[in-house]
Amino acid sequence: MADEVLQPAPTGASVAKSQFAGDSARSLRSAARNEARLAALLATIAGFVDAYGIIAYGVFVSFMSGNTTQTGYQAAEGEFGPASASALAILFFFVGAFAGALFVGPLGRRARRLVFAFVAATLAAIIGLTQLRLLSTGFGIAIVSFAMGVFNSALSRFGAQAVSLTFVTGTLSRVGSHLALAVRRAPLTDSQGPWDTHLRRALILARVWAGFIAGAIFAGAATPRFGAWVLSAPVLILAALAAFDRRDGAAR
To answer: Residue 171 in contact with residue 164, Cβ under 8 Å?
Structure first.
């Protein structure tokens, strides 16, 4: 009779280790999913505020590629007034992005509530000053662009995927790249698990882009009718996030 090969029974330590690995993977996936949802929501707010800026001030307050193009061609045509407005938005967005990276970046999620609260307060101030007729166009451009520069630091990635809340050109580029790599069945070098694929990331980033354009549509429809009061919507959402956003990145 052939000798039987006995397989060692799993020990308690190995079972515990396997369970821990499974729980860790599920936690990682859940955190990435929550961050992706938050990214889509924040992109919707960015698109909303950007569309408001176009309608109210004639410049983008979060999309600096558009302002750079406008500054260039308007200056070339001798329209220095409009060009200076676009340049003003670029300047203050840059300063806001610098401030966000300098003061918010090192603190990570611990400071994210402060970013939400700051942007909500800024937009609320815009509503009040506009209603009181105390807000000049230049000042409005400056403070909203600064706030959106800071806002961009609230979320820079979900899981291992980099994301920009205001730079939709980069988002669309990443969607195309991930789709192409998915078609080629190329491996995802920084994959966080079997669930993390090129196709999944392309779909998530597509939702971020869709959120941005949805926000722009909502603002475009509402701003001509309600004016600065439309900013009440992002103010309330950001105030809720400031109050309830958890340190692990998931909103309650």
So the answer is: yes
12 half-sphere exposure, CB direction, 13 A CA radius? 0
Return all residues near 10 (Cβ < 8 A) that are at least 6 apart. 18
Say how many Å lie between the first and final Cα of the chain, rounded.
63
| Predicted model pTM | 0.84
**What's the pLDDT at 141?**
97
How confident is the model at residue 101, as a pLDDT?
Answer: 85
Closest by CA to 48, choosing from 207, 206, 218, 236, is 218
> What is the C-alpha to C-alpha distance for residues 196 and 229, in angstroms, rounded to an integer?
41
Q: Where are the domains of the chain?
A: 38-244
Per-residue pLDDT tens digits for 158-214:
767 778 888 888 889 999 999 999 999 998 887 878 888 899 889 999 999 999 999
Q: What sign for the dihedral angle of Cα 199, 47, 244, 158?
A: positive
CA distance 176 to 169: 11
DSSP state of 252: -
pLDDT reading at 109 higher than 70: no
Instruction: Map residue 8 onto helix, strand or coil.
Output: coil
Q: Which residues neighbour 158 within 8 Å (Cβ) at sequence distance 6 or greater?
A: 32, 35, 36, 38, 39, 204
